[in-house]
Specification:
The chain has 104 residues and is an all-alpha fold. The chain is 79% helix and 0% strand.
Length: 104
């Protein structure tokens, strides 16, 4: 099992933990709006880090956005395997073609 799959399992396990002892549980206790806000914040921070020229900062922000994305998927009861399957489906397809097919 790869790192992201293990992390997705850990997030699922911590969802019902005591919010005073688990960051994941505290996010879930605050609900989808807070989870979405954190995901958005991390996306903006990753975008800024992309421009900063500091590779370490971008690596850290990339980890944060992946973590919060997995929390959001878990909150919506979407199995990470579904995302992997979608990526597999898109493999070998031009991004331009794939996007055109979505809007058709």
């Amino acid at each position: 099992m790869d790192t992201l799959s293990r992390l997705a399992q850990t997030i699922a396990q911590r969802r019902a933990a005591d919010p005073s002892h688990s960051y994941v549980a505290s996010l879930h206790a605050k609900g989808l709006p807070q989870i979405a806000r954190k995901l958005g914040e991390e996306g903006v921070e990753a975008a800024i880090a992309t421009l900063s020229g500091d590779d370490g900062e971008l690596v850290g922000e990339a980890a944060d956005i992946l973590f919060h994305l997995l929390v959001a998927l878990d909150a919506r009861d979407i199995d990470f395997a579904e995302v992997l399957a979608e990526l597999d489906r898109r493999e070998g397809v031009s991004g331009i073609d794939e996007k055109a097919n979505r809007s058709a």
